[in-house]
Design goal:
Layout: H1 6-11, E1 16-17, H2 20-24, H3 30-34, E2 39-44, H4 51-59, E3 63-69, H5 72-84, E4 90-94, H6 100-103, E5 111-115, H7 133-142, E6 148-153, H8 156-169, E7 172-178, H9 181-184, H10 196-203, E8 209-215
Parallel strand pairs: 1-4, 2-3, 2-5, 3-4, 5-6
Antiparallel strand pairs: 6-8, 7-8
Helix pairs in contact: 4-5
Length: 216
């Protein structure tokens, strides 16, 4: 880790926060941090090529964007690509998605995107998945009423387990469920705005599982 060339780049970057005390101190005041009254969209795990993240910020300038990521290279690449798209209403946070309750207050987020998280496919490792009951409760609390959680994964077992958990929990309301979202929900499938993993899986003819849930 000390030899990682992206560490100093991240630590001095104006659009990346790494100090947890600083991050947690912004709870309930993120609109003030951005100095505007735009709604906030959150993405947990940005990926590397960042097609979705950077293009979303470019096209949807009526929102503030907050991205959470742990890896230094991904943090730096996302920040730089977004700045090149002429959008300054974003910030990257170096922290785990499980800590959203420390970062955001009640109904502070409009929509959250969780795309292709680590599936931890072995049963003994499933406890490390982000889609857990406690996390979903935290996310429900910080989401505005009538707004969304959008989830994608190529792992059908993980998708099914997440759907079963949400059904059992009975707080999120399913709006869209698809096991082949490219072909079944064509109006939502934008080939110009894909994540890096979606490009890889699509090229291998791997079906993408997609779900939208509403806070009612």
């Amino acid at each position: 880790m000390p030899n990682n060339p992206y560490i100093p780049l991240v630590e001095k970057h104006d659009k990346i926060l790494t100090d947890l005390n600083e991050i947690y101190s912004q709870k309930s005041t993120w609109k003030k941090y951005f100095n505007n009254n735009k709604k906030i969209r959150l993405e947990i795990w940005t990926g590397l090529w960042n097609f979705f993240s950077t293009e979303s910020a470019k096209l949807k300038k009526d929102y503030n964007f907050i991205w959470m990521e742990i890896k230094y290279k991904r943090l730096f690449k996302t920040a730089e690509k977004t700045l090149k798209n002429d959008n300054n209403d974003f910030i990257l946070l170096k922290d785990f998605g499980q800590n959203i309750d420390k970062i955001f207050d009640k109904e502070e987020i409009e929509t959250t995107y969780i795309f292709f998280p680590d599936p931890w496919p072995k049963d003994r490792h499933a406890k490390h998945r982000i889609m857990q009951e406690e996390f979903l409760e935290k996310l429900y609390n910080i989401t505005e009423s009538w707004w969304k959680l959008i989830f994608k994964t190529d792992e059908k077992n993980y998708f099914d387990a997440s759907l079963e958990l949400i059904k059992k929990q009975n707080i999120w309301t399913p709006k869209v469920i698809s096991y082949d979202y490219e072909n079944e929900i064509t109006e939502k499938y934008d080939k110009s705005n894909l994540t890096e993993f979606e490009v890889l899986f699509r090229n291998k003819d791997i079906k993408i599982n997609y779900a939208e849930f509403i806070k009612v």
